[in-house]
């Protein structure tokens, strides 16, 4: 067995440790004593600095202490009450804020509503004003479509063949000449028997002469009979509704001239009346037979009354008249009818003619008919 060391046999030496501990404890005791001395001096100093208080002052301080204590208790109670009432106050403030916000929004909403109503009224007014504009736009659109359709159907312009026109040889109509009037319409010609149409009017007028008489005026001369005056409108209406005027070839219409004391017989070619250019080429046509008859009568002439749209037709029929060597003349008409005045009766003037213009110093007579 191994031998033990000397250290193990003698044990651990603690003398140094005990010295250190003793020194520490001694130092702490000294520090404690010093602290106690400093505290005593401080207490003594504090007590020496305190003012001497009498019993009355002490009593007053106690009273003040009690009063402060009561105030403190009151403040604490108020604080506790305030803490309890704080949620209610907060809710009240919230409700008040919401109410103010609601009133503010209501005011804004009212203003916006008034502005909205104003804008709606302006819009309604504008819509009302746009109605005629839109209607006009629709009309213009329809007219544009119609014109576009017409334009699409327009044929290219064709070169018009030149017409050979004979130079006129104007000369007056012989005295007491018997005039035969012909109406020349586009591609048609018809004889106007003026005497026959006036006789038709006279025959029909005899049926209503008494009914349409309105007054009389003195005749000229001492022995002259009074001249009857008739109602123009009633006469024209009767002739239109019940009168048997005109013929298969000619339409006869009695027309009222408001400023005249005479009626007018307006003659126009019937829809299928007269003869066409193709039909008068035959020597047996009514037109060529009439030319030969007129040629055989002394002092007889032909007067062609030409519709302004029938120049070409007139040139054709004129060649037939020249071939027969019938004296002839012509007159251009700007209306599609021929007029003759009914001189056999006098009618009541519906209104007075306008007075002559001031400053008129001369009168231009209408051109006289003639031959060419």
Structural class determined from secondary elements = alpha/beta
What fraction of residues sit in β-strands?
15-25%
What is the mean predicted local confidence, pLDDT?
A: 83
Largest pleated sheet: 5 strands, mixed
The arrangement of helices and strands along the chain is HHHEEEHEEHEEEHHEHEEEE
H/I helix tally: 8
Query: How many angstroms does the end-to-end distance come to?
Result: 188 Å
Q: State the total count of DSSP E strands.
A: 13
Q: Strand order of the main beta sheet, please?
A: 8-3-2-9-10
Explain what you see:
The chain has 372 residues and is of the alpha/beta class. Among the domains are: 75-151; 176-351, no CATH class. It is built from eight helices and 13 strands. A five-stranded mixed β-sheet has the order 8-3-2-9-10. Strands 4-5-12 form a three-stranded mixed β-sheet, with no helix packed on it. A three-stranded antiparallel β-sheet has the order 6-7-11.
